[in-house]
Amino acid sequence: MPGPVFLAGGRVSLRPIEEADLDFLHEHINDARVWRSLAESLPRNRDQEREWFEAVVCDDESVHLLVTADSTPLGTVGLDPVDWADGSAELGYWVAPDHQGQGYGTEAVELVVGYAFDQLGLRRLSARVMAFNEPSVRLLERVGFVREGTRRETAFVDGEYHDTYWYGLLEAEWRDRD
């Protein structure tokens, strides 16, 4: 039984990640089409996925939500860690390969960004993306994030080093968007 909806959009809903979601998470974090874009090159077994759930999802310093459409899990979106003193957090997300390219990630990110600024009172969000992940670059820029810099050769994926782009979004920019 899925958990309660925390944030609802037009096509997606975001709900807390529950222990019952671990099979979905475990399957997709080990899918090369997901882990490559996250530069997570080590496999994760069920016990490691449970440890991640207990240590990260269940802590008080982050927000991790399951992206769903009609109760079907699609991916995750979150803010981790939330720095309450600075009013900032880092955005992270992924969408299962069968559901990519359909606008689900963009809607989920927009919901979380609005939540971060409207409900949590944050003033700044950051995000990082592998330079080769053009769909994610387009998503961030469509939502209003601005590329702030490049960390060169930060991740070893598929036999070569790749750059990571860093993005930022200020609350004022979010509010002033067209």
Automatic annotation (TrEMBL):
GO molecular function list? protein N-terminal-serine acetyltransferase activity; protein-N-terminal-alanine acetyltransferase activity
Name the record gives this protein: GNAT family N-acetyltransferase
Which InterPro entries did the record assign? Acyl_CoA_acyltransferase, GNAT_dom, Ribosomal_N-acetyltransferase
Organism listed in the record: Salinigranum rubrum
Q: Cite the entry's keywords alphabetically.
A: Transferase
Q: Ranges for the N-acetyltransferase domain? A: 12-172
Cellular component GO terms, alphabetically?
cytoplasm
One Pfam family it belongs to? Acetyltransf_3
- Is this entry keyworded Transferase? yes
